[in-house]
Design a protein that fits this description.
31% of the residues lie in helices and 38% in strands. It is an alpha+beta fold.
Length: 278
């Protein structure tokens, strides 16, 4: 057989093999997804018989999340200070114990190792929004290199308080929230927790499936003595652990579980349950 015809035949056979493999993988994926849906439905039924109603539409899969180690990055922290305090030469001072104080034009920003921050902007140094306060606050976070989502707005007389929650690789960091306080159109203070760290060494950790997580939640609730009649939502994201002496911290993948009586963190890897003190 001539080589051109033989080559075309080989290419055709390879295409057929690849097509067969794609169909096989697709069938297995569909079978796995069908099994997971059935397992979730059975788990929801078990919990319902135990007196806990579950809203399936409020459940998020934790797949794709993994423990993350972070290392403090003072260059990124300075960038945040420049965004919040205004353009110019910001003076940084190590106060000891991991506390850094940034100053410029009468305003100052203090940042602790775990990202806890407090910025005070007197009237003379406050930043004018010059338009939508929400867009102004979001723009400052973007300048600071922080990815975040707005979670609320509160108005009290001349004061407007805008709240944001930080995102890490697109997932919410439930323990990292910040509030921008405006008097009229002038930014006067920023309070909360933001991580300007850089990603450190990767960590291994197998995420619990939703059915397993639901059962672990039920077991932990029973063991703690808490009572709930409905589980309204399970939102997947991160929780920042206490920082180390060097300023590094760890993001643990968790579900934020909301019931009719309380809210909890359910660890996506260990299944440990922690009630939020609100």
């Amino acid at each position: 057989m001539e080589w051109p015809k033989l080559k075309n035949l080989i290419l055709l056979l390879l295409l057929l093999v690849n097509g067969f493999l794609l169909v096989l993988v697709g069938a297995r994926w569909e079978e796995s997804a069908r099994y997971e849906r059935a397992a979730l439905e059975r788990t929801v039924e078990v919990l319902a018989r135990g007196g806990v109603a579950v809203e399936p539409d409020g459940l998020e899969d934790g797949a794709g999340l993994a423990p993350v180690s972070l290392e403090r990055n003072l260059d990124r922290e300075l960038r945040m200070a420049q965004a919040l305090l205004g353009p110019g030469t910001v003076r940084a001072e190590n106060q000891g114990g991991g506390l850094y104080l940034y100053q410029f034009g009468g305003g100052e920003l203090s940042v602790r190792p775990g990202g806890e921050l407090s910025a005070a902007l007197p009237e003379a140094s406050g930043q004018p929004a010059g338009g939508s306060l929400e867009r102004h606050a979001a723009g400052l976070l973007k300048q600071a290199g922080v990815d975040a989502e707005q979670t609320g707005v509160t108005e009290e007389g001349e004061w407007t308080r805008i709240r944001f929650r930080q995102l890490w690789s697109g997932a919410p960091v439930f323990s990292c929230e910040v509030e921008f306080a405006y008097c009229g159109e002038m930014l006067r203070s920023v309070q909360g927790t933001l991580l300007t760290a850089q990603t450190g060494p990767a960590e291994a950790g197998e995420i619990l499936t939703l059915p397993t997580a639901l059962m672990r939640f039920s077991e932990e609730i029973a063991a703690s003595g808490d009572v709930c009649a409905s589980l309204r939502s399970m939102e997947a994201g991160y929780r920042a652990a206490a920082p180390s002496l060097s300023g590094g911290t760890r993001l643990a993948p968790v579900w934020l579980v909301t019931t009719d009586t309380a809210r909890y963190y359910l660890d996506c890897v260990t299944g440990a349950l922690t009630r939020l003190n609100e």
